[in-house]
Design goal:
This protein is an alpha+beta fold. It has ten helices and twelve strands. Helix 5 crosses helix 7 and helix 9 packs antiparallel against helix 10. It starts with 7 loop residues before the first strand and ends in a 6-residue tail after the last helix. The model has no long low-confidence stretch (mean pLDDT about 95). The protein binds zinc ion.
């Protein structure tokens, strides 16, 4: 579904001397799509948008087709958030992102720096990152949530869990009417052998961006973000891709989930509720099953259960 979503764009490359890897993206259409589908209020939109952007960048960072799931389990009012990025099989196909916050209606006062207070909305707790390259066991890493600002937490995660030195910049600009006006981000990784001064230089360059969402709002595209972050190290682009908000949920998958609930549950849904309405948490799509459909699924459940009648 949603094959016609407007696309953002992502680039991957290195500094001219190849001592630094960079991933950068403009994700405005994807984040606005998430906001609209989930009715995310501004602070929630910023949190989910930053996480979706990071998920897109980290999916591109996979060496092979696969998926990355970022899960923030914090004690803030969002009640946790999940973002997934999926790297497609074919070169040039879009990176797919989807995600949600448990509580979408979060709109807090701006923080001391005049920004959407994502840190407070997320709270403290644990960050989980799952990398699934669709071959063998998925890899799961965890780290404490240090600020709840998403970008800093991911940089801390990379260092602590994967021994990778990175700087992560993520931003979402929300218009007064609540829609997403600009969103984007970058992950830069200093490769082993590069000096500490390189890290400091990159952090300096990021600070000089003045916020990645403002940079995007002024017209900066993914290449411009990468170039600005690398500064005089110079940007060499190796790959680019569209980024779209897309969920792979379907009526068939949800029907299978219903069958798995078993006969008794399906029977009570049909008799007592007069049908079932399921909502996909990732994209907000609603699937309705009427009594006749539930009866058919109940027959499937009976067959799956070995024909026992209760
Ligand atoms: Zn869905």
């Amino acid at each position: 579904m949603m094959d016609k979503s407007p696309a953002g764009r992502l680039v991957r490359g290195t500094s001219q001397d190849a001592s630094v890897r960079v991933l950068a993206a403009v994700t405005t259409p994807c984040v606005e799509e998430a906001r609209r589908r989930h009715d995310l209020w501004p602070t929630a939109a910023a949190a989910v948008g930053r996480a979706l952007t990071a998920a897109a960048l980290m999916a591109e960072d996979l060496k092979v087709p696969g998926a990355v799931v970022i899960r923030f389990r914090g004690d803030g009012p969002l009640g946790g958030l999940v973002a997934e990025g999926r790297r497609p099989e074919r070169a040039g196909d879009p990176i797919e992102v989807r995600g949600y916050a448990h509580e979408p209606h979060v709109d807090l006062d701006l923080n001391a720096r005049g920004k959407l207070d994502v840190g407070r909305a997320v709270g403290r707790g644990t960050l989980y990152v799952v990398r699934d390259e669709f071959t063998g066991e998925p890899y799961t890493g965890t780290a404490a949530i240090v600020t709840g600002e998403i970008g800093e937490d991911l940089a801390h995660y990379f260092l602590q869990s994967e021994q990778r030195r990175t700087a992560v910049a993520l931003g979402v600009l929300v218009d007064p009417d609540g829609s997403v006006r600009a969103a984007g981000g970058a992950i830069v990784e200093v490769l082993p052998g590069a000096g500490e001064e390189t890290v400091a230089r990159l952090e300096d360059n990021i600070a000089r961006l003045g916020g990645v969402s403002r940079f995007v709002d002024r017209g900066g595209d993914a290449d411009a973000i990468a170039a600005a972050v690398l500064g005089d190290l110079g940007f060499r682009r190796l790959a680019e891709r569209p980024v779209v908000f897309r969920c792979r949920c379907s009526r068939e998958r949800l029907a299978a989930a219903l069958v798995a609930l078993g006969e008794a549950e399906l029977d009570s849904m049909a008799r007592e509720d007069g049908g079932a309405e399921l909502r996909c948490r990732f994209c907000g799509a609603v699937y309705r099953f009427d009594v006749a459909e539930l009866e058919a699924l109940r027959a499937d459940a009976r067959r799956a259960g070995g024909g026992r009648e209760g």
